[in-house]
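Quick sanity check, MarR family transcriptional regulator, transcriptional regulator for hemolysin:
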Amino acid sequence: MTEITNLTEMKAMLKVPLGNQIGRVHRLWRSAITASVQSLGMTEARWTAMLHLKMLGEGATQQALAQELGIEMPSLSRTLSQLVEQDMLQRQPHPTDKRAQCLYFTATGQQMLAKLIERTMQIRQALYQDLTPAAVQQLMQSLDIMERNARTLLLATATENKA
C-alpha cells in the first residue's frame, strides 16, 4: 500500500474522496442504462433484477437474488411480481425447500434480456470510449483489490462484534 507522506496530497484526497467518485460514476452509469431501456418498459429495479438473475443463473431463489442485489425481500418481491405480470419471469417452487421460489426467464424474458444486454454493452462502450484497454484493466485490478480489502474489513469487524 502506498503511504501518503505529503500534506498537500492528503488534502487533495480529502476534497473528492475516491469512494464518493466511485459512487457518483456508478449512479450515473445506472441512470444512463435506465434511460436507455426505459422505452422497453424497464425500470432500474426491473433491469437490475433481470441482469443479476442472468449472472446468478436461472433457478436461483428469490432470496439469493435479493442478497445479490443487496436489498430486502419485500422490495424485491414487488419488482418480481411486476416482471411476472409482464411475462418476463416465472416463479417455480424450490424442489427441496417448500418456502423458497426459484426464478426462470420466460421466452419473452429471454428476448428482453438480450435487448438489455445489448443496451448495457452500448452504454459500457460509450463510457469506456476515452480509456485504453490497459487503463480499464488497471482500474478493474485496483477495484478488485479495494473490494477484497473491504470484505476483509467487514469480516474482521463481524468477528470482533461476536467476541
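Posting the structure with no commentary besides this: The first strand starts at residue 89 and ends at 93.
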